Amino acid sequence: MTGHPRAPRLWLVDLLVVLVAVVWGSSYLATKEIATGEAVVALLALRFLAALPFLAFQAAGKLRGLSRAEVRGGAVLGAVLSVVLLLETYGVVYTSATNAGLIISLTMVFTPLAEAVITRTRPRPAFVAAAGTSVVGVLLLTQGSGLTVPRLGDLLMLLAAVVRTAHVLVMHRLKSVRHTDSGVLTFVQLATAVVVFGIASPLAGHAPWALAAAFGTKQWLLLVHLAVMCTLFAFLVQMWAVRRTSPSHVSLLLGTEPMWAAVIGVAFGGDRPGVAGGVGVVLVLVGIWWGRREAPAATEHAAPPQAEQVLQAG
Questions:
Q1: Which residue spans traverse the membrane (predicted)?
Q2: Domain segments of the chain as ranges
Q3: What is the pLDDT of residues 220-230, one digit of tens each?
């Protein structure tokens, strides 16, 4: 009898976590709908500035306890995060939403591989095969229906996956923030990123206030979706779900994000990857799923934690 009331709650947890993966998958198309090369920096400033007050309120009781070393560490991570967000968002502008969501997912296999190199441990052959499958899939994905030079956006997304991998590894190895509350660390990183974007935006094409004034109803709805659903909702659900299941369980469900990015890009964004690209989509999804199952035990902790996963750029 005691087990029956618990089952619906676990189903609800899983459903909400999958919903986070879905909204993240939709974020690439949403960004592509409102972002231009001249407006990327201002858009990022607006999106995360809108989320900061709530994150500050949520972390208020713990912010006072931050040491100077933790603030410095969070600021360093925030600066790296700024680079990741810029690369990802510029990448979305210059490639398809489907390609963006799938290529950035390579972080899931890059991170354990990089951790294995750092710790001088040999990953399982099956994991290496899974990583290779994902990479081959990305190569096919960038070719579309014929042999072509990868688009600028594809290359930017690939570089973003590399830098995001570095961000995850630094986060886990930076002693000053190793025991910092994830909500507080998220706030410090985003606050740093917003400062960077606010300073850089007038130089990059548009000031945030000018971009906000130029937005119509559709653009504001998409911006609210990115700020509320893809940032705040995702943050709250992860914090809530991890307490009721486990980080690894939540991470596994969030790993479906690239699948949703592909589905949404094709169904609503008009993406047509072609035969070669279609095979690439399948290989990337299979490789990511396989890689998550075969990730070396020694590097499982390298999977992005809450503080990293909520900081999605798409």
A1: 12-30, 36-57, 69-87, 93-114, 126-146, 152-170, 182-200, 220-242, 249-268, 274-291
A2: 34-309
A3: 999 999 999 99
Look up tokens 């950035």; give the residue: 104
Q: How far apart are CA 200 and CA 289, in angstroms?
A: 38
CA 226 to chain centre: 12
At 183-217, the pLDDT tens digits run 889 899 999 999 999 999 888 878 899 999 999 99
CB neighbours of 63 closer than 8 A, spacing ≥ 6? 56, 184, 187
Interatomic CA distance for residues 95 and 157, integer angstroms: 9
Residues 6+ away with beta carbon under 8 Å from 226: 27, 30, 31, 47
What's the pLDDT score for residue 18? 92
pLDDT at 65 > cutoff 90: no
Q: Contact at 8 Å (CB) between 289 and 109?
A: no
User: What's the longest Cα–Cα distance across the chain?
Assistant: 64
Distance of CA 185 to the CA centre of its chain: 16
Per the CB < 8 A criterion, the answer to whether 99 and 158 are in contact is no
Phi, psi values for residue 164, rounded to 5°: -65, -35
140: tokens are 């096919």
Q: Give me 155's structure tokens.
A: 């290359």
The DSSP code sequence of 103-166 is HHTTHHHHHHHHHHHHHT-PPPHHHHHHHHHHHHHHHHHTTTTS--PPPHHHHHHHHHHHHHHH
What is the pLDDT, as a whole number, of residue 314? 52
